[in-house]
Amino acid sequence: PASIAYAKSEANRARLTIDYTCGDIRAVDYGGGFDLAMLIFGEFNVFKKTDAQHILRGMFEALNPGGFVLLEPHTYDAIEKQGKSPRSWHTESSGLFSPTPYFWLEEHFWQAVSHSATTRYFIVDATTVAVDRYAATTQAYSDEEYGQLLSDAGFSEIQRLPSLTGSEDYQQEGLFVLMAKKAQTA
User: What pTM value is reported for the model?
Assistant: First the structure.
């Protein structure tokens, strides 16, 4: 809901008419008639492979013939590096986990067999010392595996680009872009 509210605010500011749907990307009806479907900022990697396959098939079905899918996934190396990162901690006056001050502790794990990284977060309320625990797992894929996922969903003409701008973007290190096309029907 917060992301949708922000997007609506930005669209209104730019005087754009856009319809938004809030739902679980793994289950929501994507509708149809689109020329572009995209999933950016590495969000593709937060889904297990079976969910990623389902999402890609849904995107394919929602596109018009000749439409494009645009993914901005993480590189395999970036996810492996994340999983092998050292433990860390810092403090926040407010932020992602709480509107009040908290300590943010995290630890990382790399699972070589499943090619995934897990990060565990321990959020300690600075006033009450209550601890909330969260975890996130990120799935790594090789370039060949990304290509196979897109092909299996029906996409062709797969292109790899260094970033959304088309050139190297060091502010988005570890991310790149995949574009693929839904073939025109005869």
Answer: 0.87
Query: CA–CA separation, 65 vs 9, rounded Å?
Result: 31
pLDDT above 50 (res 186): no
Q: Which residues of 25-52 are buried (b: 16+ CB within 10 A; e: fewer)?
A: beeeebeeebeebbbeebbbbebeeebb
Sheet holding 156-161, edge to edge: 34-39, 63-71, 177-181, 156-161
Taking the C-alpha atoms of residue 157 and residue 176, their distance in angstroms, rounded to an integer, is 17
Average pLDDT over residues 57-66: 96
Q: How many Å apart are CA 11 and CA 5, to the nearest integer?
A: 10
- Type of residue found at 84: K
